[in-house]
Design brief:
Blueprint: H1 15-34, E1 44-47, E2 57-60, H2 63-69, H3 75-90, H4 95-114, H5 119-140, H6 148-162, H7 172-184
Antiparallel strand pairs: 1-2
Length: about 230
């Protein structure tokens, strides 16, 4: 009596074929989001398969949004998506970069596999490279946290870099000031939920401002005092 573990239409891959299939799937995901990076990065148009017309149509260059929206059945590609989600949850930025970096590492690993180098040897080499890279970054790192003026200028430079997009390029200096002031008011806390963002239709982008305290978005009712 034989027991069938797989579905009738299921296929099974082993050894090098399975490894190559996973690597190709992961590289394909990295190539998909790679073109969204940088100041000349392109937007992606995402269309839901369950909607028609403009319903479910999303235009974005956010790597996390793109990766969440594409259906995947490749194990390694799903790992890349999970890496991006963890990066988004822990840091809130770099979701595309970490995905592209992982895909490029796998691309280099594929070349090493073609040279008949054992996968465990390749992994050990990557771990050694990781330790060396971390050591180099720690030696090159400079902290200005004790110098408030320089610390603020460093944060402004970071904010201006992240705001160098087509939408905010003209007002990136203003919004860099707003962002840095808002973060510095947290007094070292990383809970960004304490920063409330209120969006109002109409006006210009340059009308945005940072306010102390709490703002209540309330409409004036009939016969209510305005003061």
């Amino acid at each position: 009596m034989s027991t069938q573990l797989f579905n009738e239409n299921a296929t099974q891959e082993r050894a090098e074929n399975a490894r190559l299939s996973n690597i190709i799937g992961a590289i394909a995901v990295g190539d998909l989001v790679k073109s969204t990076l940088g100041p000349k990065g392109m937007d992606k148009i995402l269309q839901s398969s369950s909607s028609r017309g403009d319903d479910g149509l999303v235009v974005t260059n956010d790597g996390a949004t793109i990766l969440k929206s594409i259906p995947l059945d490749n194990a390694a590609a799903k790992v890349l998506v999970n890496i991006s989600k963890v990066q988004d949850d822990e840091v809130g930025d770099g979701t595309t970069s970490v995905c592209v970096l992982a895909a490029e590492i796998l691309r280099q690993a594929e070349q090493l596999l073609d040279q008949r180098i054992h996968p465990q040897t390749i992994i050990d080499g990557f771990r050694l490279a990781t330790a060396k890279a971390r050591e180099a970054l720690e030696n090159a790192a400079v902290s200005h946290k004790d110098d408030e003026a320089q610390w603020r200028e460093d944060l402004l430079s970071i904010a201006r870099t992240t705001l160098s997009s087509k939408v905010l390029a003209a007002d990136k200096h203003k919004f860099a000031e707003v962002c840095v002031d808002a973060v510095l008011r947290l007094k070292g806390s990383t809970n960004l939920d304490r920063i409330q963002i209120i969006k109002k239709a109409g006006g210009k982008v340059s009308d945005s401002y940072l306010s102390d305290g709490f703002i209540l978005n309330k409409k004036i009712g009939v016969n209510q005092p305005r003061l």
